[in-house]
Amino acid sequence: MELDQIYKDHLNQINEAIQASEELAAYLDTEEQEEYKALQEMFEPSIDQLYQAVAESQPLQLMSLEQELLHDDYAGLYLPKILGYSVLRGQIDNHYNYVRPENQFRDILSFICNSPNFDILKTKIGQSVQIGFSLSSDIWVTNLIKSVHNKKVKWWLQNQKLHELRDISAKKSAYQRYKIQFRNANYLSTEFPSNPAELKIIFGMIRDFMIYRIAHQDDNVSLYQPITAMLMNEELKGSDEYTYILGLFLNYFELNEDYKNVLAPIFNQQRKDNDEFTDQYLRFLLDLHERKTPALDAAADRRIIDLMDVDIEDDLTNLYASLKVVHNKGYINEEVMGEVRRYHNSYQGLSDNNECIRQSILVYVRTLMDNLEPSDYSTWFDMHKVFNSYINIFGNEQFKQEIKNIDLRYLRQCLKTYTDKRGGDYQNVKKFTTATFKEMNFMKEKHIKELFVTKRKKRPTPQQ
Asked: Domain residues for 214?
């Protein structure tokens, strides 16, 4: 998507300031690292401020903004950063290979390689190039290197092809380490497909982009129209990918009446026309529950209930009818437990339907326990009766294990707070945990005891 003129004008102002600056004149005179660093410190904050403004309000224009920076007038400023963004923006498969060639990575790297500032920039882009090359095909990397005419630059690029990153486990580890340094950066963007083949290829990019925007509560006003246009495309309807994106949009985006009037009929028509829709939609719900962020909470469920035609007799009507009772009356209510039991007993134990209701209860449990202070441990004691009731209703080992994991996380917080083993708080927590974990067969008795054993630090060996 083309960059708005207001952003182009802002960029031009930065460009003019760079060209008129003493810092650029000093760098061009000496071509030394110290002068280039001064140039960066002077102007990169302004470029970054503009980049973040676009990322917040117009994320579909980010790649156009990056293309605007590929001009020698900017003296290579901010290019190492956007090179890293282009590396991480690409969708990868289970083998840690790009699903499709990353043209933005190629364009930025090619520009840097042909830039008069290459010798300065190469000291800042080595890791990005190594990771980008490891994710790309050998043919793609070879063709990129061939396109570079400068022998020194070509030799440098050859040395960024690391043999050790051919191993999948090593590549995965390197990629995850590399990604950490960008964990607070907002750089994701996407395209939208016009046909089913494109949707399959870029689905992961769209999914990750939307989930990031939802989880970070970004300004998504600019996304409503293109996403709605995509969902109205008749060619795309019916696939797993389409159902997933539809699910994300309807569960998490606040829709005004105009959008509801367009999207509610699409959602309900898919329920009637697409025989696989219910299964696709349940798989979408379970994938979101597995990710845990963003949470599929009461607010998300109510958005769907608001759009749902309850006269359609399908499993989704049944699921959301039960969830409506849970949300309206509270999961600790005896009547609600009876409704959950009724729903759960109407399906096979390991069905996706039942897993969805189990995960919805777990959202409530996690929300409570994640926000419970150690000083409120008496609430934990009281609520465990409710947790135990749901364990008995579901009879599901995985649900029970998750409750145990939640308990352990909270217990560790308590033990960090209450360090006096003779204190009343410590003894209360220990007594409850020992009795409860034993009664519920969470752990063997010796392992329960180990939870309260303080490991002694080894004494340093005396120096001879």
From this structure: 193-312
Percent of the chain with pLDDT over 70: 98
d(CA 228, CA 240): 17
pLDDT at position 460 is 61
Give pLDDT, residue 128. 98
Q: What is the DSSP letter of 115?
A: S
Q: Span 182-193, mean pLDDT?
A: 95
Distance between CA atoms of residues 39 and 28, nearest Å: 11
Distance of CA 450 to the CA centre of its chain: 35
Evaluate whether 355 touches 291 at the Cβ level (below 8 Å). no
Q: Which two tokens stand for residue 281?
A: 């939609």
Residue 245, Cβ neighbours under 10 Å: how many? 23
Phi, psi of 297 (to 5 degrees): -100, -170
Tally the domains of the chain.
3
pTM, two decimals, is: 0.93
Report whether 294 contacts 211 (CB < 8 A): yes
439: exposed, middle or buried (Cβ count in 10 Å: 0-12, 13-18, 19+): exposed
Instruction: Name the residue among 412, 369, 367, 359 with its Cα closest to residue 390.
Output: 359
Residues 306 and 393 both lie in one domain: no
Helices assigned H by DSSP within 223-376: 224-231, 240-252, 257-273, 277-291, 298-307, 315-329, 334-345, 352-370
Task: Indicate whether 321 belongs to any domain.
Answer: no
Q: Please report whether residue 23 resides in a domain.
A: yes
As a whole number of angstroms, the distance between CA 245 and CA 223 comes to: 13
Cα separations in angstroms, 425 against 207, 377, 379, 410, 418: 45, 9, 13, 14, 7
Nearest Cα to 50, choosing from 35, 65, 36?
65
Report the amino acid identity of residue 15: N
Handedness of CA 443, 341, 304, 368 (dihedral sign): negative
- Examine the domain organization and report whether 42 and 148 are in the same domain: yes
Other CB atoms within 10 Å distance of the CB of residue 15: 19
Identify which of 382, 377, 380 has the alpha carbon closest to the alpha carbon of residue 418.
Answer: 377
Considering the domain architecture, whether residues 168 and 223 belong to the same structural domain is answered as no
253 with 278, same domain: the answer is yes
Mean pLDDT of the chain: 95
The answer to whether the CB of 29 falls within 8 A of the CB of 55 is: no
217/238 Cα distance (integer angstroms): 29
Element (H, E) at 378: helix 377-394
